[in-house]
Amino acid sequence: MSEGPNLLFICCDDLNDAIGGLGGHPQAQTPNLDKLCERGVRFLNCQSSVPICGPSRASCLSGLAPWTTGYYGHNDHWKGNALLAVQPSFMEHAGNHGYGVYGTGKIFHNGQDKMSVWNRGHGHSVDWGPWSWDGQKPGDGWGSFAGHQDMPFEPTPDTLFASLDQVPDIPADPETGAPGYRGWRNDDNSPFRYESRDDRDMMNDELNGQWAAEVLSRPHADEPFMLCLGIGRPHAPLVAPQEYFDMFPLDKVQLSPQILEGHVEDCAQAMREGNTSTTDWGFRKYKLLYENGGEETLRRWTQAYLACIAFADACLGKALDALWSGPHADNTYVIFVSDNGYHMGEKEFLFKNSLWERSARVPLLVAGPGLARGEECDQPVSLLDLYPTINEFLGLPQDSGPLPLDGYSFAALARDPESDWGGPPMAVTAIGCKGPCSAADPGKVEDQHFSIRSRTHRYLRYASGEEELYDHINDPYEWHNLKDDPAAADVKAALRQELDAQVF
Predict the structure, then answer these.
(1) Peptide bond into 237 cis (omega under 30)
(2) Highest CATH level, class, for 6-129+203-503
(3) What pTM does this model have?
(4) Residue 141 falls in which region: left (phi positive, over 0), alpha (psi -120 to 50) or beta
(5) According to the model, what pLDDT value does residue 397 have?
(6) Cα–Cα nearest to 315, from 466, 404, 225, 206
(7) DSSP code of residue 419
(8) Backbone dihedral region of 354: left (phi > 0), alpha (psi from -120 to 50 degrees) or beta?
(9) 199-200 and 225-231: which strand pairing?
(10) Going by DSSP bridges, is the β-strand pair 457-461/467-471 parallel, antiparallel, or unpaired?
(11) 305 vs 14, 163, 285, 471, CA distance in Å?
């Protein structure tokens, strides 16, 4: 076997804190992540630097904050940004220092892959399917990937949810000329074969978990390795095998306990109005569900989200089982994260890309040689801190490229969650506000929205000047905005000062 140390890096997409050990939803079932918690440290207060896929991954992989690069959007390749273009990803950095680097699934954002980083092998590119289809050739965007027979309304790619058993049967449409089609289709419009539960194509996450397990079972005698496993679910469409839906009978599914009617009313108007292409999607999706089935449709969405989380857990569990039963169990670090959280109806929102806890907070589980076992840490950390932490775990230089990393290693906290660390006392999250904030046209710091999280509070400041303040000791669901509460004035001032120090 390799002398190591090795790294298994696992990243889910759009996974909030609805996993075992983090308390995000009381019905979540994630037995494999539960085992990882038992073997390591769960960080209770990890924040995404930008809670939407593209800029979150650009920041995480490069170690550069969006307030450094100006990249808050996701409509252009991140390497089109002048600073990100010259900064090696943590995978490239490891490869440059003798590591064999493997990858499968979604690690880079869609279509932004840099295949050369996988210097020892690549498994499968991400495929969000299977999709329903109306029989026409897809055009721009999702083209004619169409509605589902069991849906109460015409879905979009962000609202489709169904089990694999619900094979789409789209009727012909005389008005559009669509001939209709029965069956599932992949991202590339090729058929996804489904005859029965035991006779079907494997879904992309199943393929990724299987490929990673095979790599982890190899001896790797000549060099240490880094394996990056990207799991697509619970990203939309919320399609998973029926057995995972069966784990959550619809009549037993609970809506998020964090939902309180009307608690969006004291939030900033800038967020509710939405002034980019994505900041108002959450309100629009929530409204769409309620206009087409009300609470029952939200319950069906919740069932599908929980089912996809359980499915994701099973897929990544293949890799974890292969690691722990194989030759590298004692010399391999495991880091599990998501790129952003996701609302489940809280604040009348059903998406990511908000500054509230449900979107900004992400799961972070860490295990490996010399680390604490079965413990938790409430120190606020950021996905920005992954790069320097990986460097410390693997013994790589912290000076990884032409630009200094913006994060701080939390390796000491993983060894002893009660220890001090060299990072800041609070963690910052940003969302793009004015303009596209794209790679080639970076956004100005003063034009964006920000929040900062301490152990006890979250403070939000919008580009409009509006503020929000939440006391997580007495109000963990962020129901009551204390921005005008005189008793909270000192706390608000302290958080605002720390935000200014870190960003402006």
Answers:
(1) yes
(2) alpha beta
(3) 0.96
(4) left
(5) 97
(6) 206
(7) S
(8) beta
(9) unpaired
(10) antiparallel
(11) 10, 11, 14, 28
Task: Using pLDDT thresholds of 50, 70 and 90, give the confidence band for residue 1.
Answer: low
Residue 139 phi, psi dihedral angles, 5° rounding: -105, -135
Residue 414, phi then psi, degrees to nearest 5:
-70, -30
Q: What's the residue count for the chain?
A: 504
pLDDT over 50 at 151, yes or no: no
Tell me the DSSP string of 48-111. Answer: -SSSSHHHHHHHHHHT--HHHH-----SS-GGGSTTGGGSPPHHHHHHTTT-EEEEESSSSPTT
Half-sphere exposure in the Cβ direction for 316 (13 Å, CA): 33
To 5 degrees, how large is the angle CA 109–CA 69–CA 423? 95
pLDDT 10s digits, 225-242: 999 999 999 999 999 999
**Would you state the structure tokens that stand for residue 148, as one six-digit string?**
């589902």
- CA pseudo-torsion sign 242, 244, 245, 251: positive
State the burial class of residue 410 (Cβ atoms within 10 Å of its Cβ: 0-12, 13-18, 19+).
Answer: buried
DSSP character for 189? Answer: S
Torsions phi, psi for 185 (to 5 deg): -130, 150
What residue spans define the domains of the chain? 6-129+203-503, 130-202
- Which residue type, as a one-letter code, is found at position 391? N
Q: Which of left, alpha, beta for 262 (phi over 0: left; psi -120 to 50: alpha)?
A: left
Letter string b/e over residues 277-313, b meaning 16 or more CB atoms within 10 A of that residue's CB: ebbbbbbebbebbeeebeeebbbbbbbbbbbbbbbbb
- Nearest Cα to 287, choosing from 352, 350, 358, 346? 350
